[in-house]
User: What shape does this take?
Amino acid sequence: MYSDALLAALPKTDLHCHLDGSLRLPTLIELAKERGVKLPSNTPEGLREEVFKETYRDLPDYLHGFAYTCAVLTDEEALERVAFELGEDCLAEGVHYLEVRFAPQLHVRPGLGIERVLAAVDRGLDRVRRQHEATEGVKTGGVPPFRYGIIACAMRMFTGGFGPYFKDLTRVLDGWPISTVYGIASLSLARSVIDVRDRLGLPIVAFDLAGAEAGNPASDHIEAYDLAHKNFMKKTVHAGEAYGPESIFQAITKLHADRIGHGTHLYSADRVQVEEDPHRYVRRLSEYIADRRVTLEVCITSNLQTMPEFRRVEDHPFGRMVRDRLSVTLCTDNRLMSGTTVSRELKLACDAFHLTPAELRNVVLHGFKRSFYPGTYREKRAYVRQVIDYYDKVTAKHGLPQVQRGDAP
Assistant: This one.
């Protein structure tokens, strides 16, 4: 329907992209060799066959690869390199705005605190920004500059395999209710990232909650999110990915979520456990999300790989979200685990749901408009205006019918 060349040329965002799920395979192999980490294979082909596959048995099989990526991200050099390469990969496919997320506590080691972890990732991405701004396209051709933000992920739950930080915390708080331990870890992270943002001026733009939803409610992390909220930090929450609509409702009402990561089961009335009619509950929730413009960070390929109920792209609720005029944007989730790019996600959606030029424009521009841009509101408006002008220039060059302003809310 739309050519690969057009989709690659469009200015895009990636608002839901995990740093530790987006390494280049050759880099993973090299870092593992240098740091003494044993991999199932030492070739990209072997790792694609053994770990980073096209299809997975289930979510645990999908998550297995993080054991290797996190194992090599244990020092500033590795974190900075991986962040730099991710920025390069984004620009190579037309992603001009990136929000990269990860759990800083997973990378804490003796001598490597949260502040240095965050600063290393910022250095890598800032190098991409500076290099891109020196190009002629940005200087004279109207090409949008590269901008980015960092999202700090708290964890709904953790085990001993999550690294030294969580092992130490579990030992210190031995005997405490486990939900309390999880909440303390999140609150500690919120305090740290707010301090680093305010003291060093790093572009830490939001607080996130990741990890297994079932059995690990958002309510365990209210204090952390209240602190982030009071300190004017934006909020996003992984919700509706492995649990039902109530998880999304809890993220919005208890954690002040500005955006929702995935939101895949928004319409799953069969997962509703409240007393009222489940279809009515889903309808009211989706209408609330639409009216309040709570943006859904949709990751089609990742969902297809981890949710067996989706056998083909057409089974994904993204098409209904677009028809219902929700604020949705397409993201990669994990570029390595899912073997995808934003351009590929757009191609899948356009082909499966026959997006009109206006719908395509909306999906792309929602990413820019609902980003947690690390600057003033006026700076963000100017940046989005530049992106819109460039978008229209690209579509005109490729012969796509021009959409009247105002069609993309």
User: Anything to note?
Assistant: The chain has a mean pLDDT of 92. The beta strands are 12-18, 95-102, 147-155, 204-210, 234-239, 259-262, 295-298, 328-330.
